[in-house]
Amino acid sequence: MTSSNSDSKNGSSNDGKKGKGGASTEIMPGFAPLPREKHESARVWCYRVLLRNIVHLNLPPGSCLLESEVRQRLDVSRTPVREALMQLAQEGFVTIVPQKGTYVTRIDMKQVLELRYIRGCVESKTAAEAARRMTPELEKRFAKCLSLQRIFTPRF
pLDDT (tens digit, 9 = 90+) per residue, 6-46? Predict the structure, then answer.
């Protein structure tokens, strides 16, 4: 394997594309690949890498996803990338526009507010039901879970 292939697998490929004034014209500048699991298929790995980059806003809403650039960065063939993009489209993370391109789906604030309201309703009902069923043993387990959350929750 050549050095350039190794670099593209690690996401550190620099193809030397420069725009005016020497600035990079890279389409997906924040894209960060993940290590591939031992027995993970190329399709599953592509999906996992793309989803993580979308969720972590390395690929922001509205950004263009070039299949060719994803293939190059991950050093995989066309099929796993296409299959991963189709799955992401089915789940609403990307929008595929025929003859135009694939784009990270924009965040719909109306939907965010609706889901936030639904979550609040479900959580309050769940908390009320948990309180109704609370026993001394469950209270101890609950306290232990809360203390573990405090330990492992990052502070920002």
Answer: 444 444 444 444 444 444 445 677 788 888 998 999 999 99
* Residues of the chain below pLDDT 70: 1-27, 156
87-117 core/surface letters (b: 16 or more CB in 10 A; e: else): bbeeeebbbeeeeeebbbeeeeeeeeeeeee
* CB within 8 Å of 45: residues ≥ 6 apart: 34, 36, 37, 74, 76, 80
Q: Estimate to the nearest angstrom the gap between the alpha carbon of 53 and the chain centroid.
A: 4
Q: CA dist 88 to 63, 65, 99, 124, Å? A: 14, 12, 18, 31
- Token couple for 125: 């009902």
Q: Say if residues 121 and 114 touch (Cβ distance below 8 Å).
A: no
d(CA 23, CA 60) in angstroms, rounded, equals 20
Q: What is the pLDDT of residue 26?
A: 59
